[in-house]
Amino acid sequence: MAGQLDPPPLRLDLRGLPAPQPMEHILARLHTLQPGQRLVALTPLYPAPLLPMLEQLGFACDARATGDGVCLVICHAADRHLLDAPAGP
């Protein structure tokens, strides 16, 4: 429906959890996202093992260190056909 706003992001503060709990929480919650909704998580470490897993599950993800020992992770469902399509002319 045109003009419809995406649902607010699902926010998770996972900074106080030891590995691998932040990864487990993110994986568990991704499948609860509504269409167009993003998951925004704060993690204590850069989630290098998580990123390829998310891609295989069909999620686009961006992870960035914030400079204060925290990593910001943003994920959303990706249209695999669009991501895998060759670039246009």
How does this structure look, described?
By secondary structure, the protein is of the alpha+beta class. The chain has one domain: Translation Initiation Factor IF3 (2-Layer Sandwich), CATH 3.30.110.40. The chain has helices spanning 21-30, 50-56, 80-84, and strands at 10-13, 38-43, 59-65, 71-77. The model is unreliable at 80-89 (pLDDT under 50).
Strand segment count: 4
Residues in β-strands, percent: 25-35%
The name of the CATH superfamily reads: TusA-like domain
Category by helix and strand content: alpha+beta
Distance between the termini: 30 Å
Produce a short descriptive summary.
The protein is α+β, with helices and mostly antiparallel strands and 89 residues long. A four-stranded mixed sheet has the order 1-2-4-3.
Task: Please give a handful of descriptors for the protein shown.
about 90 residues; alpha+beta; Translation Initiation Factor IF3; four-stranded mixed sheet; 4 strands; disordered C terminus
Topology:
Layout: E1 10-13, H1 21-30, E2 38-43, H2 50-56, E3 59-65, E4 71-77, H3 80-84
Parallel strand pairs: 1-2
Antiparallel strand pairs: 2-4, 3-4
